[in-house]
Amino acid sequence: MNMNVKNIIGLIEKIFLIIIAIFTIAAMCQEIFSLISNRRVELQDLLLMFIYAEVLGMLAAFYSSHRIPITIPLFIAMTALSRLIILQGKDGDPSILIYESGAIILIAGACWIISRVKIDEVS
Q1: Bigger pLDDT: 109 vs 70
Q2: Whole-angstrom Cα distance, residue 60 to residue 99?
C-alpha cells in the first residue's frame, strides 16, 4: 500500500513537471512572437527569456538527478528582481529600488556561500 502511494505521488509529480515544461515553452513562443510582431527587443524581454530558460534548466536538472540544485531557483529570483527593477524605470520609489537591490545582494551572497560549502548528503 505504501509503495502505491509513493508511485502515485511520483507520477503526479512527473505529470506536473511535464505541464510546467509545456507551459514554459508555450510562454517562450508567445514572447518570441510578441517580439517579432513588435520588431523591438528590450532588456526586460531578454531577462524574461532567461527566466524561461532557467525554468527549463531546473526541470532538466530534476529529471537528470531527481533533485533541484538550490542555486537555480536563486538565479531565477535574482533575474526576476533585476527585471522588476528595469520595468519600474526611473520614476519608481528609490526606497523600493534599494530593497530590491538589497534582495539581489542577499541572494547572490547565498549563492556564493552555497558554492563554497559542501553539504554531506544523508542517504
Answers
A1: 109
A2: 32
Q: What separation in angstroms does the CA of 53 have from each of 21, 86, 98, 101, 102?
A: 10, 19, 27, 23, 25
What pTM was estimated for this model as a whole? 0.75
Q: Which of 54, 56, 59, 98 is nearest to 77 (CA)?
A: 54
Cell for 24?
Answer: 514554459
Domain ranges (residues) in the chain: 2-116
Do residues 82 and 93 lie in contact, with contact meaning Cβ atoms separated by under 8 Å? no
CA dihedral of residues 103, 54, 23, 39 (deg, nearest 10): 90
Amino acid at 63: Y
The sign of the dihedral angle between the CA atoms of 39, 43, 48, 52 is positive
Q: Are the CB atoms for 76 and 52 separated by under 8 Å?
A: no
Q: Write out pLDDT tens, residues 82-122.
A: 988 888 877 878 899 999 999 999 999 999 998 888 665 54
Task: Judge whether 80 and 51 are in contact, CB under 8 Å.
Answer: yes
